[in-house]
Amino acid sequence: MRLWIFEKPSMAQAVLPHLPKPHKRQNGYVETGDGYVSWLAGHVLEQVQPGDYDERWGKFPWAFEDLPIIPKDWKLKITEDKKDQVAVIKALLKKCTSVVNGGDADREGQLLVDEVLLHFGNTKPVARIHMSAMDPVTVKKAIANLEDNTQYFPLYEAGLGRQRADWLVGMNMSRAYTILAKKQNYPGVLSVGRVQSPTLAIVVKRDREIDAFVPKDFWTIEAQFADPAQPALPFWSRWLPPGLSLESAEKQAELDANGEAEEDEECADADELQGAAGTAGGTRPAWLDAQNRIIDKAKADQLAAKVQQAGQGVVTRYLNKPVEERAPMPFELTGLQTALNARYGYSAKQVLDTFQELYLAGHVTYPRSDCAYLPESQHGEAPVVLDAIAQGAPHLATLVANANVTIRSRAWNDKQVGEHHALIPTVQAPDWNSLTAVQKHTYEMVARQYVAQFYPNCLVDKSKIEITIADERFAANGRVVKDPGWRAVFQGEAPAADAGKAPKGSTPLLPVLAEQSWVDCKAVNVAAKRTTPPPRYTEGSLLTAMKHVYRTVSDPEERKKLKALDGIGRSATRAAIIETILKRSFVEAKGKQLVSTVIGRILVDALPKKLIDPGMTARWEALLDGIATKRVPLDAFMKAQEETIVELVRAAQASTLPTIPPEAMPARKPYTGANGKPTPRPVPAGAEKCPKCKKGHLVPRTVKNGPKAGQTFKGCTNYPECKHSVWPK
């Protein structure tokens, strides 16, 4: 008798039709022809509270003498509202002869089923099912290809290491900095997290860059040239700073148009743009800033006049080559969240929840994926998937009809596929009219990206011209689409992969020129520009910053290491991290923008670098990946975490929190009566007068949050003016 344990009921529901009949539904499970199917509801076990290890760790208010909290023997307990379902699993484990782990195919999915089996001391053989999607074809294939669960024990250990490391940081450091805040009568909890704190620091850093930003004026020079033999094709070009190559001209033009340098992972010329300009001797002229922009208007006017007077220039370089632009990769979760946030304003959590709904309905593959590649074996399923897209999203039917399933894009690469593959539609078509607006937008965006894999490359002619005139150089860039190829799938809209990357301004058709030929100078313009601050983060851009955290690191070697990682957090957790810093009021949403609050900045200022350094957090994730691949022992990882916690607690105890201004204190909502208007709190008969303020009365209160949630005490009705309280002994 085989027991299938799934992560959630919906997964069990998807598998049931493919298991032996008859099926008999019971309380918390289904009896099948050869066993049982049951389910969890996410994690049903949780780490116990510090007070469950040692009484002194549970007392409130918290005190530094009780820190650090480091359990010797880690304990889990059954989550209160999930005890009934866990009891069902326990009983079925006694009846069955083998088990199937049906958790999600990732670190957490492995952990949440394995921890239940270990909790009950299961010794029966365990198999593992991996389902990349919930459609019937994929489910049948997964059932036929069960694996030995023991080979995934390192993945379980990685999940356990993550769970314990997060607990150590959260329990110890949240207590430490809340203790410091209480000294200033701050009533809230200053939560600290392994991923949460670096994410908050990213937002704070950007906001401070904006606050400290001082706009600076600069000037650009453009000249219009024409080949005397082709007067109908005049073209504009931009002045090239001394020492800057023609190949870097387009990036410099983007920089000038933005008014401020942008971090771009694909900017191969970044070092050149920042520091190559200069004379033959290597010295940068005083009238150029670090970004090679002219900051002296008189010099700009002088250069323009010199060029205008010269009248003619010579073509010193002419490049023209056909380029094939490949289709954008299919989405991984962070990319999809970023794209939908940019286009429709959806939050990261909203996108994850929506994609999860589509996944559970069988229309798309597993959502929590960091991978943009697809297994080569799935290429053969393309005709069926494309038919499902045409049926489920009828307005895409023509695009599907023009797709060529013999095309194999770079997305199909087994070597690049990890635990999960890219987010794509399944063979099970949705009913378009029954989808919500956000479901339609989500499905369509993923579907278009998939369809694009079966279109040819976009064929483009790219031209670059360098003109030398009066010892000055000008550059022009042209781009002409010869065959749109996959771009036809997006019907004139820039694909998500191009968002924010397209060159500013037009890229016109340039004439064909011969090197060393003469061109006439028709006009010269000097344009006044002003630098602008970097943009505030949105949920979409913050997700990208978390994923590409290496961009915030200045050390070249460290930057190189971090680029190979997948940033801080994981696709499955980043949305929740953003929700947390919003909920804690460390960050607030102003329209689409995320802005750090006063208390959020104070917390970042107080935390040691180890807790806010994105590089440190990303390296922790690398160690967890090492555990999952048997390269790092779990014990070694935990020992390092414990040593770090001891060090961090000592540092916190020796520090002080920056002054918390009154405006950073959480606003207390006034008590409202039956009429909905503010009114004094009712005082129970016989309530004792407050011995401290002599104005209020001591009344029963219940702790709503924190380690003492649910406990009762007596507090003054004159709170927050009076914070006197009496706790039971």
From TrEMBL:
Q: Where is the Topo IA-type catalytic domain?
A: 152-649
In Gene Ontology terms, what is a biological process of this protein?
DNA repair
Q: What class of enzyme is it?
A: isomerase
Check the record and name the InterPro entries matching this protein.
Topo_IA, Topo_IA_2, Topo_IA_AS, Topo_IA_cen, Topo_IA_cen_sub1, Topo_IA_cen_sub2, Topo_IA_cen_sub3, Topo_IA_core_domain
Tell me one GO molecular function of this protein: zinc ion binding
**Reaction catalysed?**
ATP-independent breakage of single-stranded DNA, followed by passage and rejoining
UniProt domain Toprim: residue ranges: 1-137
Which Pfam families does this entry report, sorted A to Z? Topoisom_bac (PF01131), Toprim (PF01751), Zn_ribbon_Top1 (PF01396)
In the record, the note on similarity to other proteins reads: Belongs to the type IA topoisomerase family.
Query: What is the protein name given in its UniProt record?
Result: DNA topoisomerase
Q: What is the lineage of its organism?
A: Bacteria, Pseudomonadati, Pseudomonadota, Betaproteobacteria, Burkholderiales
